[in-house]
Amino acid sequence: MEGIYEVLQKIKNRPGMYIGKSSITILRHFLVGYQFARSEMGLELTQEDTDFYDNFQPWIQRHFNVRTSNSWSNIILLFTRDEKDAFNCFFRLLDEFKQRDKSLDAESENVVTDYEEILAKL
Is the pLDDT at 36 greater than 50, yes or no? Predict the structure, then answer.
């Protein structure tokens, strides 16, 4: 089975074939289903899959400077005109995400870890 970035490239090239139309909401639902299907089949996530599922949401929140419980797709949709524009924006952001400085992810994890350590001492 292919990794998430290969699947996303196919969707980007032919959204109608894979998800019906260019929609960020439908894309997110597809990706949730993709993750679930891999889990149900007993297939481990690739390193890229894990990176995307663990780090894309917080990266999007930092990118748009928002703190919310909304999904990455809703955040992108909030800053775009419509579903199709958000879909296209997702792929531009995904390229940025894949090229990001991964040390920032580690710094974010350390902040959470440090906070959890403080709470544990209380």
Answer: yes
Judge whether 15 and 87 are in contact, CB under 8 Å. Answer: yes
Q: Please tell me whether the overall predicted TM-score, pTM, comes out greater than 0.70 for this model.
A: yes
Per the CB < 8 A criterion, the answer to whether 88 and 12 are in contact is: no
Closest CA relative to residue 118, chosen from 68, 55, 110, 61: 110
Report the b/e string of 76-93 with b at 16+ CB within 10 A: bbeebeebeebbbbbeeb
Spatial contact of 73 and 25, defined as CB atoms under 8 Å apart: yes
Distances (CA, A) of 63 to 5, 13, 56, 70: 20, 25, 10, 14
Q: Which two tokens stand for residue 104?
A: 């920032």
